[in-house]
Structures are given as structure tokens and as C-alpha cells.
Inverse folding.
């Protein structure tokens, strides 16, 4: 199921090695900044919704039992909060490797405090990538997350850390919080 996007991402956005670039994080990048950054700011993007629709066989699951992680889905009128990092281009070599299973870099406009806007990069796993799982009933998504685990840890830890990070950002993301509630009340993780 793996699709290695490292070479593709390098070609898509040749970057000037000394010029800092804004990167918008909406998933694990919100809480897992395992890279140097010049500046970090809360930000949002318009027209996208976060969904647990991407399969993970390299981080939060395995080939035999893929977990679910977030990607963004086009959604007119929607707003998605996250964390923006100003980084030097070297950081993308690390992130291209970390997020190599189906995520491609795209240019996007991100907003700080509604008025200030900058252009930057974002990683999105589009529906045409082989690891894309797509929509499923929320109880099925919660059950899959409850049972899966991979080299980066348990899939439920990923969900719970994301939900905590979104509460801190004040993003009322019903998709994420409904799955969190199902996981905590019905799946009884231990
Ligand atoms: C993010 O947090 O923006 C992100 C999530 C998955 C892959 C790449 C980036």
C-alpha cells in the first residue's frame, strides 16, 4: 500500500536554501515539532476539513493492520485551525521522509488572527493516493484507531494528542471530538 512521495515532493517545490518558508500543520505537526523552527504561530486555512481518512502502515499501523491518521478534504466554507511554523528549507528533507506515505506538498494561504495572510506549504494526502482509506462510519473509525499500533506508537495516542492540541487551539472539530468520544466511551482502550 506504501507510496513513497520523497522524490515527488522534492521536485514539486524547489526551495531557495536560505529562504525561510511557512509550513501549516493540522495533524501531528501541531504537537510534534521534531524540527528546528524560526517562529511558530497559531493559524487557520479556509476551505478544508480535517478527516481521519488516510491509512497509516508506517507510523500508527502496519501493512497487515493499517491505522488511520488525518488528511485534509476540500470543503467549501470550512475553516481548519492548526499551527504554522517558519522553517528553513532543510526541514522539508526531514518532513518529506517522515510523511512519505502518500502526503504531497501543496502551496496554500494561511491566516494569522483573521487579517494577516501568508503563503506557505502544507502536506495533504489526496484521495488518489494508494494509502487513502476514505470515509467510514465513525464507530468503525474509532474501533480501527483503538486496535492499531505501529512504529511511531499507538493510533489512539495520536488521536488523543490531536484532540488535546485542538482544544488548546480552540478548534471545535466535531469529526475529531466525536471519534475521541466513541473511543473513550465504547472502545475502552487500556
Ligand atoms: C500535519 O500535521 O500538517 C501533517 C499531518 C500529516 C502529514 C503531514 C503533515
Amino acid at each position: 500500500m506504501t507510496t513513497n512521495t520523497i522524490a515527488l515532493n522534492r521536485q514539486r517545490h524547489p526551495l531557495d536554501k536560505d529562504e525561510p518558508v511557512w509550513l501549516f500543520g493540522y495533524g501531528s505537526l501541531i504537537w510534534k515539532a521534531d524540527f528546528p523552527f524560526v517562529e511558530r504561530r497559531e493559524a487557520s486555512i479556509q476551505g478544508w476539513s480535517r478527516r481521519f481518512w488516510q491509512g497509516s502502515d508506517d507510523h500508527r499501523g502496519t501493512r497487515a493492520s493499517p491505522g488511520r491518521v488525518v488528511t485534509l478534504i476540500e470543503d467549501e466554507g470550512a475553516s481548519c485551525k492548526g499551527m504554522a511554523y517558519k522553517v528553513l528549507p532543510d526541514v522539508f528533507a526531514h518532513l518529506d521522509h517522515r510523511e512519505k506515505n502518500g502526503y504531497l506538498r501543496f502551496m496554500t494561504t494561511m491566516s494569522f488572527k483573521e487579517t494577516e495572510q501568508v503563503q506557505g506549504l502544507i502536506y495533504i494526502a489526496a484521495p488518489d493516493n494508494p494509502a487513502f482509506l476514505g470515509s467510514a462510519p465513525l464507530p468503525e473509525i474509532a474501533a480501527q484507531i483503538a486496535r492499531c499500533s505501529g512504529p511511531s506508537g499507538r493510533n489512539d495516542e495520536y488521536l488523543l494528542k490531536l484532540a488535546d492540541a485542538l482544544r488548546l487551539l480552540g478548534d471545535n472539530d466535531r469529526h475529531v471530538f466525536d471519534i475521541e468520544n466513541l473511543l473513550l466511551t465504547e472502545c475502552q482502550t487500556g
